User: Which sequence fits this backbone?
């Protein structure tokens, strides 16, 4: 493995790509009792249509997440229990773009790593076990359906996107998952759980050579073909629908406004765009922005107000929301402020202040093993070195952010999702 | 991990936890006062009002500008319940000097901001600023009402409220709607003056800085604190069990039912009760997870928590409405299995490993350590994570069975749908 030190960050990363295509990153964390391993595949809720053996396959919404649940089944029982017996805290999640399996432990790290790599690379399920999972996932879907935060987000994505699978919920629906069979799950595993489509990130005080040796001994020797994926036709800048409303058992109205941004680039440009988008959020509506203060003092927003910039496969958008009694007024104020900043420019002193805060924020995120692991994996999938962020960050200018706001935070690109209390 | 505890003033203490592994310094200032219905809302409101500004940075924008310039340092007000006390105040963090691009020190200025917020709030004619009080009162009322948004948290809260009616532990840590709505700037100012004079103040630091430097920072935080007398903390008394289970049902327009089950634990062997609960429902390897979720597919989550200071256990699960009896029966059957000692060797081994992992990794998070040590203070204990871990590992199967036999059904709470609603 190759050692790469980042003295400004006080971090060291060991890197290697195995002959089968698996990228390994070991982020050294001396003094910590816990260590974690994240085994991540570039396969998420949006990967519904892809090519296998020259044919396009359409799969049911929620299948990547369903597969995540079923991967824990092993020939001898259940990997969750195997890991928990060793005191590990195992878990997994499926996002739009990736599925990650991971554990944290303070003891038996290498045994746990072996179990992790085994159960994720060797599928074992039957018709009966797949059917049984309908009940558990069905309850998980029901649980999120009762969550206003989820509903307001889901509704926004359906407003913003017309064709992109970004509009489809990662977990699917109780109806869509009924079409999932053991056979389709095996197909998807064969396609996406190949070493060349995956990354192993380990964070902690562990021996990189031993991590590499375990990965070599457990995983198959060959990678797998590149899988062409279809994320829908090019979207127009305009949202599919300007507004959607739903009533739920909530105390006060909740809103989420979205602004559709252009298709994101790959490589270091993607990392730059991600940081630029985050800074644009801080400047436009962050806690220290003039807009935040004005809206807070007028009682239009409360502490729940906030948002972010998000990059998905083939799509990017900025969202902002919270609880508000007059969401339309807040929405109008956000768009107007972005346009004003784009037109009149961002105050130089304020810009420097936000720059400092944004840098501190990135350093802070290095306390979180999960943030580190996911950022490293994303870097491999999108071809950039995440820990080069201080240099990439330095290249962002005030003019870049003004242009970002002017071009993207416009009336033509926005949609509003509302959850109102039941009458 | 070597922790130091130092008394700085009358009823003011510092807990110092050195750690070189973090990128940030963690500094908290918590008032600890007995949880009472009359004051819970006032303390919650006061923390929020103090965070709005101080004489030096009189509004949010100036305050956050000052924090931004300290490389995105943060100060947040927090309100917690630990045992039967309420912890309220601020938690502050900043990037450690070692990682600042241009050198310099941010811990001292951050400490000064904390001190300003606590000792020099914005006053108008001697009262806490009316605008801040009224807008934070509205926010707090929204937060109190918003507990209905998260049905899982709502069900946990309702269960404790019903189970511990008449005990401080059953109270909300952020107060009740009616009480908060009635708070005036006059009352809140009077409350503020009495709190800074006599409430217990606990400072807690975790990070790379030397003890001497941290003591210096803390002395500046409290230099203008007017101390007069000291209010004692509330020591929690164990929850008295019920003869007949108390059964409560709420109806709302929801698609998933939430089942909460409360048990009282009638034993002084709390280490055994802790291990018993870990096996019963404390992990993804527990009896509840393996049976209610995995074997019967009744739910997505089924877990239990042991509330050590009150000696009670709460179980929570999300299920289809019609599975109420089935899920409840299974939960009770699994407790019965614990009483009989009906488990395999790996279940106890797994629970022990999870306990080791949980206690060892505590030191890997500054906020968890702060929460642990402040929890110790608030419950009148002086345990260490290592000590609790050792005590738990020494628990025998006999003691686990005895703890399970001492555990009895107390309260059942069910959040169910509105009648007439049909679910697919």
Assistant:
């Amino acid at each position: 493995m190759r050692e790469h030190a980042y003295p400004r960050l006080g971090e060291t990363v060991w890197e290697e790509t195995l002959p089968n295509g698996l990228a390994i990153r070991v982020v050294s964390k001396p003094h910590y009792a816990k260590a974690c391993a994240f085994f991540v595949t570039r396969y998420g809720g949006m990967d519904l249509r892809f090519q296998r053996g020259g044919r396009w396959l359409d799969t049911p919404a929620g299948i990547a997440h369903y597969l995540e649940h079923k991967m824990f089944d092993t020939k001898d029982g259940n990997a969750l229990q195997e890991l928990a017996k060793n005191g590990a805290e195992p878990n997994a999640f499926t996002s739009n773009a990736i599925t990650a399996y991971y554990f944290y432990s303070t003891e038996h790290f290498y045994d746990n790593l072996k179990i992790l790599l085994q159960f994720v690379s060797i599928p074992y399920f039957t018709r009966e076990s797949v059917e049984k999972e309908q009940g558990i996932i069905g309850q998980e879907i029901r649980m999120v359906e009762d969550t206003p935060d989820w509903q307001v987000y889901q509704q926004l994505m359906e407003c913003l996107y017309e064709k992109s699978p970004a509009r489809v919920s990662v977990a699917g629906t109780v109806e869509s998952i009924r079409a999932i069979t053991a056979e389709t799950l095996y197909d998807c595993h064969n396609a996406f759980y190949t070493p060349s489509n995956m990354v192993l990130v380990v964070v902690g005080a562990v021996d990189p050579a031993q991590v590499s040796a375990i990965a070599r001994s457990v995983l198959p020797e060959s990678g797998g073909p590149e899988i062409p994926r279809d994320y829908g036709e090019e979207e127009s800048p305009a949202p599919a629908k300007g507004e959607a409303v739903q009533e739920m058992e909530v105390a006060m109205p909740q809103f989420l406004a979205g602004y559709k941004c252009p298709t994101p680039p790959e490589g270091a440009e993607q990392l730059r765009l991600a940081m630029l988008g985050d800074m644009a959020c801080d400047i436009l509506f962050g806690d220290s922005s003039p807009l935040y203060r004005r809206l807070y003092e007028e009682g239009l927003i409360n502490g729940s107000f906030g948002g972010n910039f998000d990059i998905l496969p083939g799509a990017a958008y900025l969202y902002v929301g919270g609880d508000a009694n007059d969401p339309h007024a807040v929405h109008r104020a956000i768009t107007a402020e972005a346009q004003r900043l784009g037109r009149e420019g961002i105050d130089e002193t304020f810009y420097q202040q936000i720059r400092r805060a944004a840098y501190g924020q990135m350093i802070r995120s290095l306390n979180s093993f999960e943030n580190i692991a996911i950022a490293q994996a994303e870097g491999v999938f999108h071809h950039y070195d995440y820990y080069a962020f201080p240099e990439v960050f330095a290249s962002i200018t005030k003019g870049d952010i003004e242009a970002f706001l002017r071009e993207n935070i416009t009336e033509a690109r926005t949609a509003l999702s509302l959850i109102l209390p039941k009458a | 991990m070597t922790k130091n505890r130092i008394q700085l003033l009358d009823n003011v203490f510092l807990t110092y936890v050195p750690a070189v592994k973090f990128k940030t310094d963690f500094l908290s200032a918590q008032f600890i006062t007995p949880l009472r219905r009359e004051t819970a809302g006032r303390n919650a409101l006061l923390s929020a009002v103090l965070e709005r500004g101080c004489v030096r940075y009189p509004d949010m924008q100036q305050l956050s500008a000052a924090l931004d310039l300290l490389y995105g340092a943060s100060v947040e007000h927090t309100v917690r319940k630990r045992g039967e006390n309420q912890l309220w105040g601020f938690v502050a963090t900043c990037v450690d000097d070692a990682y600042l691009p241009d050198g310099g020190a941010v811990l001292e200025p951050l400490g000064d901001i904390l001190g300003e917020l606590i000792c020099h709030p914005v006053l108008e004619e001697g009262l806490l600023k009316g605008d801040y009080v009224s807008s934070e009162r509205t926010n707090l009322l929204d937060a109190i009402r918003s507990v209905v948004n998260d049905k899982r948290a709502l069900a946990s809260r309702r269960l404790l409220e019903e189970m511990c009616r008449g005990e401080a532990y059953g109270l909300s840590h952020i107060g009740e709607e009616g009480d908060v709505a009635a708070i005036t700037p006059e009352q809140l100012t009077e409350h503020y003056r009495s709190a800074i004079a006599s409430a217990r103040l606990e400072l807690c630091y975790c990070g790379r800085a030397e003890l001497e430097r941290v003591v210096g920072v803390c002395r500046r935080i409290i230099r203008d604190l007017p101390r007069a007398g000291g209010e004692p903390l509330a020591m929690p008394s164990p929850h008295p069990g019920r003869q007949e289970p108390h059964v409560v049902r709420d109806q709302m327009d929801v698609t998933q039912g939430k089942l909460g089950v409360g048990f009282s634990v009638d034993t002084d062997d709390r280490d055994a009760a802790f291990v018993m609960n870990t096996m019963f429902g404390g992990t993804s390897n527990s009896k509840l997870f393996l049976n209610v979720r995995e074997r019967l597919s009744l739910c997505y989550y089924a877990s239990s928590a042991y509330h050590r200071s009150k000696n009670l256990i709460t179980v929570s699960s999300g299920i289809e409405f019609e599975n109420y009896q089935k899920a409840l029966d299974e939960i009770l059957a699994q407790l019965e299995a614990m009483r009989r000692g009906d488990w395999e060797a790996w279940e106890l081994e797994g629970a022990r490993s999870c306990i080791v992992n949980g206690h060892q990794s505590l030191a890997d998070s500054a906020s968890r350590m702060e929460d642990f040590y402040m929890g110790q203070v608030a419950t009148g204990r002086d345990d260490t994570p290592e000590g609790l871990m050792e005590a738990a590992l020494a628990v025998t199967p006999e003691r686990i069975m005895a703890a399970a036999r001492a555990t009895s059904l107390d309260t059942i709470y069910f959040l169910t749908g509105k009648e007439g609603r049909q679910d697919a």
Chain A touches chain B through 70 residues (CB under 8 Å).
